[in-house]
Amino acid sequence: MSEHFDAIVIGTGAGGGTAAHTLAPTGKRILLLERGTYLTREQENWDPGPVFVDGRYISPDIWYDGDGTPFQPQVHYFVGGATKMYGGALYRLRPEDFGEIKHVDGISPAWPVSYADFEPWYTKAEWLYQVHGEHGEDPTEGPCSRQYPWPAVSHEPRIQRMSDVLAQAGYHPFHAPCGILLNEADRPASTCIRCSTCDGYPCLVHAKSDAEVIAVRPLLDLPNVTMLVNSEVVRLQTDPSGRTVTGVVVDHGRNGKEEIYTGDIVVLAAGAANTAKILLRSASDSHPAGLANGSDQVGRNYMFHISKAISAFGADDNDTVFQKTLGLNDFYLAGDGREWPMGNIQMLGKSSGGAMKGEEPHLTKLIPHWSLDEAAHHAVDFWLTTEDLPKRDNRVTVDGDGSIHLDYSESNESEAASLYHEFGKLLNHLGLAKHHVLHKSFYMSMNIPVAGCAHQAGTCRFGTDPASSVLDVNCKAHELDNLYVVDTSFFPSIGAVNPGLTAIANGIRVGEHIAERLGASTSAPWAPAQRGAPASHPASAIGRPPSSD
Ligand SMILES: Cc1cc2nc3c(=O)[nH]c(=O)nc-3n(C[C@H](O)[C@H](O)[C@H](O)COP(=O)(O)OP(=O)(O)OC[C@H]3O[C@@H](n4cnc5c(N)ncnc54)[C@H](O)[C@@H]3O)c2cc1C
After folding, report:
1. What pTM was computed for the model?
2. Are 245 and 266 spatial neighbours (Cβ–Cβ below 8 Å)?
């Protein structure tokens, strides 16, 4: 392709897809390069067997852990990236997360921007991704300049009872922020039917607010946007000075034949591990340790949360279908008798017998399906998250074959244990005994802890000091004039809530910065700021489906 672009965006997930969406209304020529293709809409999308047992949507990639043991990472290469599988729990970080936080195993470093600096983009992100929620319920959340575009998704009766019991016991349960398209009035073709297969499954009816549906599809008809799927970026080339990316080298899977694309600005958003891989593989005379890696920080500080997925079984039936409506941050911060922060508790997608088989194949091998279904009917499913620290030696490296090596050791395990202890007390209030729980491996841990890389972050942190960070405050590489990184790589710390909304907000923030740099406006008639408003997001804004659909 000989056309030169104003901006090339690599990766179409939360960060890249959203940045492209922000840039597109400028009218500038944008090229999107996506390694995967469109995730096929098929019955298997909602079937726990193919999804969890067969790993139908997991990449065949093989990575290696710190000991050199191979594993299959839980990564998904599709238009929309990991958001195709995500649970759409779209939380803001807490204001404290932007500052320095003392943890039992060390310091969670401050961000170079404050919560107040970031807040306007959180609001834009919530409106663009159609988040349902209720600001003001969770005492730990920061100020917000605008309420969510949609009211909170109401609890189903069992979850409402739980919420009432917890509130009576002195806890502060709140309605979890959900990124789903639940607007019955004007989205007949893609309305969430509140099924149980949101978390960890693709949405067959495109009713999850994922990056494909929200950010990428609306661009497909635009004359200034070119989208290439099955296009894996393998490295970036620079001019002799090393200051400017001059070529994006792409493998389209055609017998190793590579093509080179050129653009004034290059936005890298391949996910925290793959972005580091691309930069490390782009080493040259002017960047011998990898592109933009004079600080030796590219690939380091890998984080992915310490998470526990737990099914608690009680005597009562749990008829809940859409379970992810409740959150609890009472243990998020230190204070009130807590020496250390512990983290967040939220609900998981409702378990089913089929999902249990996939999650725990060995444990459930001899148990018949009907019996697992019966057990699942009594299960209430929770997700506990504790912050892990950006450790220098938790890092992505790449071997001579181009394979990713991921060295990781946990931190703050005792904080995670304390959270679990508090969770046990919670279960007592709820009549769910702690000894009747099943620890699910789900998508975060599977067989090898490092394989559960759903919340991967931190490999190109942003900061003001080029000696200790890869990116500047605008997420431009310190050492290059035209290279930006907008996936979760930029996180200097990860907090203890899901990272998606922060990646999305940053995609908008950096997209606006780049648009300004290109001398363009981002406020076309259908621009993001307007799409969340009930009266102004017609179904047609979703855009035409790709021919593969
Ligand atoms: C099962 C699951 C559940 C989750 N649930 C939640 C949740 O409820 N809430 C939440 O906030 N977060 C959740 N997450 C995490 C969230 O999805 C990620 O944090 C977020 O998508 C990260 O955004 P990103 O832009 O960094 O990467 P991604 O969204 O993964 O995007 C990276 C993109 O780059 C593409 N790519 C990779 N390599 C290349 C290459 N070489 N060339 C071209 N393209 C490339 C990928 O195919 C992908 O499209 C979940 C994740 C998973 C897997």
Report:
1. 0.94
2. yes
| Residue 271 in contact with ligand 1 by CB distance below 6 A | yes
Q: What is the pLDDT of residues 396-422, one digit of tens each?
A: 999 999 999 999 999 999 999 999 999
Q: Return the DSSP state at 51.
A: I
| Ligand 1, atom 29, residue with closest C-alpha | 13
Q: Cβ(274) to ligand 1 under 6 A?
A: yes
Is the distance from the beta carbon of residue 83 to the nearest atom of ligand 1 less than 6 Å? Answer: yes
> Which residue puts its alpha carbon closest to atom 6 of ligand 1?
86
The CA distance from 364 to 216, in Å, is: 39
Q: Does ligand 1 lie within 6 Å of residue 77's CB atom?
A: yes
Residue of 10, 86, 291 to mutate, ligand 1, most atoms within 8 A of C-beta: 86
Cα-based distances in Å from 235 to 10, 256, 459: 11, 14, 17
Q: How far is it, in rounded angstroms, from Cα 271 to Cα 442? A: 20
Nearest 5 degrees, angle CA 458-CA 297-CA 455?
15
Ligand 1 atom index nearest CA of 507: 25
Question: Which residues is 260 bridged to in the sheet?
Answer: 249
β-bridge mates for residue 346, sequence order:
327, 383
Which residue matches tokens 């994006």? Answer: 248
Percentage above 90 pLDDT, the chain: 78
Cα(121)–Cα(502) distance, integer angstroms: 9
Contact 390, 263 (CB under 8 A): no
Burial 66-79 (b: 16+ CB within 10 A, else e): eeeeebbbbbbbbb
Closest protein CA for atom 18 of ligand 1 = 500
Residue given tokens 């090393």 in the structure block? 242
* H helix intervals, 92-133: 115-128
The reported pLDDT for the residue numbered 361 is 67
pLDDT, residue 375, reads: 75
What is the distance in A from the centroid of ligand 1 to the CA of 171?
32
Mutate which of 58, 455, 497 for ligand 1 pocket (most atoms within 8 A of beta carbon) = 455
CA of residue 317 to ligand 1 center, whole Å = 34
What would the DSSP string read from start to end of 275-335?
HHHHHHHT--SSSTTSTT-TTS-TT-S-B--EEEEEEEE-SS----SS-TTEEE-TTSSSB
